[in-house]
Design brief:
By secondary structure, the chain is mostly helical. The chain is about 75% helix and about 0% strand. The chain has one domain: Helix Hairpins (Orthogonal Bundle), CATH 1.10.287.70.
Length: about 140
């Protein structure tokens, strides 16, 4: 009886992945900035400009200056744009989930309390039924 689950099981909303994702994005910006400075020598003149270029792409601002000239630069740019878009979506979803979870907390507590009362009542009914069955079998 203890394994009875009332209602749908929902996965816990967690933003534990948010900090690692942001740290990975920072690392990606540094690596992409260095790569842009190495690949796009006409567009990105040095590492500092490469960092600015990568930051502008991953934050979904777009190009700050000229677009890339080499195929590798185009691929790197597209990758940074996609990662930036996904990162923005993840951060937005995490913040929205945080607000929704705070609103739902009182209802979840009330629901858990009601579930426990129902389980306790079912447990008592099961014990009474077993008692009645035992008396009937003894006769």
């Amino acid at each position: 009886m203890r394994n009875l689950v009332l209602g749908p099981r929902r996965p816990a909303i967690s933003s534990a992945w948010l900090v690692p994702a942001l740290l990975s994005a920072v690392l990606l910006v540094v690596v992409a900035g260095a790569a842009a400075a190495a690949i796009e020598t006409h567009t990105v003149s040095n590492f500092g400009r490469g960092l600015w270029w990568a930051t502008s792409l991953i934050t979904t601002v777009g190009f700050v200056g000229e677009p890339p000239e080499t195929p590798a630069g185009v691929l790197l740019s597209a990758f940074l744009m996609i990662v930036g878009f996904l990162l923005l979506a993840m951060v937005s979803a995490s913040l929205a989930a945080l607000f929704v979870r705070q609103e739902e907390r009182p209802f979840e507590v009330e629901e858990a309390s009601a579930d426990q009362r129902i389980l306790d009542t079912l447990e008592r009914l099961e014990q009474r039924l077993e008692s009645i069955e035992a008396k009937m079998n003894a006769q």
